[in-house]
C-type lectin domain-containing protein (Malurus cyaneus samueli), 149 residues
Amino acid sequence: MSSAFISLSSLCTDRGWTCCPKGWKRFQRSCYFLSQDRMSWTESEQNCTGMGSQLVVINSRAEQVRIKQSPKRENFYIGLFAEKVGQWQWVDKTPYDVSAAFWRQGEPSNMTDENATVMHVPAEPPYNWNDVKSNTNHHRICEAAAVTV
């Protein structure tokens, strides 16, 4: 009984309980869904939106390091894309800051047809982003705000 209380109380904040949907992982004030299936970047974005979320927007090194802790060795779409070669932007319109990006060495290659971003999990932290063709099928990471009740 006391171990159940301890594990439940770890979710409690000074404002209440911080909750995520079943199967999602919480970090700070966000919930993350790492998909089991694969789809294109556009389909991934639509799938996340359909669940009331968006492809993940990485706002800090701590978030980058925490999210990439997955036992799977796969590529996951994130919410960074380029409408024009080399002009990267986040799905939520957060300004792209190259000094707060986590590209693998030699990336982004900015090839004409590589306009989407994947996070390779697990890779050496925290630099594991790669620009890829958006029509290739990869897993996705969706992000939604955690609910405090």
